[in-house]
Amino acid sequence: MKNLKFVIYFAALFIMSCENDPGITPSVETFLPKIALKGSSKVVLPCGSTTYADLGVDATENGQPAKVNTTISPRYFGSSTINTADVYDISYVAINVDGIPGAAFRTVTIPPCNGDLVTNIEGSYSSTIFRNGVSAPQYTNVKTIYIKKISGNTYQISDAIGGWYEFGRALGFGYAAPGYKITANNIATNSFTFGPHIEVGGFGGELIMTDFKVDAAKKQIVVTTDWEFGYTFVATLTQI
């Protein structure tokens, strides 16, 4: 019985000392924000769409509505408004009173409308790529490369190396070479000018487009680029 009394006595002293110790923070209850998408996580709009009505999310903290910050990030062509051809990543983030975030994500795609490859090279393409003359199954018929008209006879391509790293190596769009400008002087005679030069995604290194040939009968475009690290990419794009 004496031993039991001593145990109780020292336990009480320990609890009292913890309560008085400024270095010990008592635990508190926190409620994580809950976010649920309204609608699909992947949306594909008709080509040429200029408007998009986002359904948003339901966000709560401890059963009460939570404030949501929405961010739109274009993958290839730079517009942060979903009103022109591109792939857009939308993130929805809510942060609770203790600074703990919750998030949900959606992808919205507006493909460019296919041109006739006689007067217009815009469109969606599958891609087969060779690098220094070598290819493999994962670089064959990869989807999707976009060519977008940005003014009268000027276009941009979503990946000037045809998706070698983005799709073939599955490294994602951060390793594409987006936004290379192509000016069509005369599509019928394959007269094009290119530039300015760009870099390859997360790797860096100057990429120079050296050739761009259109075969309207085959619905194909062959794009050749030289990368300063000693690689030449030849991508055959076939209109989808």
Fraction in beta strands: 35-45%
- Per CATH, the class of the largest domain reads Mainly Beta
Structural class: mainly beta
The count of helical stretches stands at 2
Radius of gyration: 27 Å
Q: What's the domain count?
A: 2
Major β-sheet strand ordering: 12-11-10-9-8-16-15-14-13
> Could you tell me the number of beta strands?
16
Written account of the structure:
The chain has 240 residues and is mainly beta. It has 2 domains: 34-110, Immunoglobulin-like (Sandwich); 123-239, Lipocalin (Beta Barrel). The protein has 2 helices and 16 strands. The chain has helices spanning 2-20, 164-168; strands at 34-37, 42-44, 57-61, 64-65, 69-74, 86-95, 101-110, 123-131, 142-151, 154-157, 180-186, 191-194, 198-200, 204-215, 220-227, 231-239. The strands form 3 sheets. Strands 12-11-10-9-8-16-15-14-13 form a 9-stranded antiparallel β-sheet. β15 and β16 (231-239) form a beta hairpin. The longest helix is centred in the N-terminal third of the chain and has 19 residues, at 2-20. The N and C termini lie far apart (87 Å). Residues 1-19 have low confidence and may be disordered.
Task: Please tag this protein with its features.
elongated; Lipocalin; single chain; 240 residues; Immunoglobulin-like; nine-stranded antiparallel beta sheet; 2 helices; 44% strand; 2 domains
